[in-house]
Design a protein that fits this description.
Length: 356
């Protein structure tokens, strides 16, 4: 018997499902890329299987559309709140998915909270989570990244006995673990890439100056353009397609032949702005995004972008939070992760008639 099912017979499908295609041990093993013996141990709840391997087998069951044996259903170790700005920017669901996967693998139940214009504020969401007895909270691009807000709200949260970790946006006045991409390094890398392609007038389209990630992107951009003897122009706008379009329009007026954007969504707006002028991307204007969620390899053209190490950052954030929950000493500092340049079809050599 394997998980209550005899080897060679089908694992029961979803209740009420039409006659399912049989999923034998071999099917599950192939999907999980493990041996049939390993599948057997997992389905029977036996020890001696690495946590990551066990997760692959359970994921294979889910992918194949079959229920997990009752004995494998775990009791939750507690609720963890995840507070993110919104879901329209694909990078936030990408982070949420990985964070939820990591939490679930550690036995915790994630509670996703999103903010939208006119909806609940971050403070209201936190109050609701605390009232429901969450064990901890993960903040993604929250008020901690906004230099115009009062960081005292996080001191008050600590006073309520709720551990938390903050992603993307460092504030030295908040005592907690931080996880961030190296935003300054990202814009430096983008400028080097564009300069190597012959661009000498490069624009940066980013969000409002009050945000820490924006300040860091601008600092890296100006430092690199200054050192590389490149004319760099910064345009602040909203983190949206429309914002990227408006900013790029101004940068094109300033003679820029390449635009580095603060997000992939802004980069879509940059491409739209170029095309509205009859310019081609990348033949006439090169565009670099920032984030690299899955969809942007399939845009027209495929987007050159700076990839945030989502899985590594999310895993580090969850690990830090769970250490705090366990009462272990965790450095209240910033853990910085390096972005990666992903070159696709939206960047190319500068137009030949570009002034040097």
């Amino acid at each position: 018997m394997v998980g209550g099912v005899t080897e060679g017979t089908a694992v029961p499908g979803p209740p009420g499902a039409a006659t399912p295609a049989p999923a034998r041990l071999a099917d599950i093993a192939q999907q999980a890329e493990v041996s049939e013996a390993t599948v057997s141990r997992v389905l029977n709840g036996k020890a001696g299987v690495a946590a990551a391997t066990r997760q692959r087998v359970l994921a294979a069951l889910d992918v194949l559309g079959y229920e997990r044996p009752v004995r494998l259903r775990q009791r939750s170790a507690g609720l963890i709140g995840l507070v993110i700005p919104e879901l329209t920017n694909p990078i936030f669901p990408a982070f949420a998915q990985v964070i939820e996967q990591v939490l679930a693998g550690r036995g915790y139940t994630p509670v996703l909270c999103t903010q939208s214009p006119g909806g609940a504020t971050e403070d209201e969401l936190v109050d609701q989570l605390v009232e429901r007895g969450v064990t901890g909270i993960v903040f993604m691009s929250g008020l901690h990244a906004d230099t115009s807000t009062d960081p005292g709200r996080y001191d008050r949260l600590s006073g309520r006995g709720v551990p938390f970790v903050l992603i993307n946006g460092f504030n030295p006045r908040i005592r907690a673990p931080f996880v961030s991409p190296d935003d300054a390094a990202a814009t430096r890398i983008a400028v080097r890439h564009l300069r190597a392609l012959g661009h000498r007038r490069i624009g940066l389209a980013v969000g409002p100056t009050r945000f820490v990630p924006v300040q860091r992107k601008v600092a890296g951009f100006l430092a690199e353009t200054g050192e590389a003897d490149v004319e760099g122009t910064v345009q602040h706008t909203l983190f949206s397609v429309e914002g990227g379009q408006a900013a790029t329009s101004s940068l094109l007026d300033a003679g820029c032949t390449a635009v580095v954007c603060g997000s992939d969504m802004m980069a879509l707006g940059a491409i739209r702005a170029a095309r509205q002028r009859g310019l081609r991307v990348p033949e006439d204007v090169s565009v670099v995004g920032y984030d690299d969620s899955d969809l942007f390899a399939f845009t027209d053209p495929p987007l050159t972008t700076l990839r945030q190490p989502v899985r590594a950052m999310a895993s580090a954030a969850v690990s830090s939070l769970l250490e705090e929950i366990s009462g272990n000493l965790v450095q209240h500092t910033e853990f910085v992760f390096q972005p990666e340049l992903v070159v696709r079809g939206s960047t190319a050599a500068a137009p030949r008639d570009t002034p040097s």
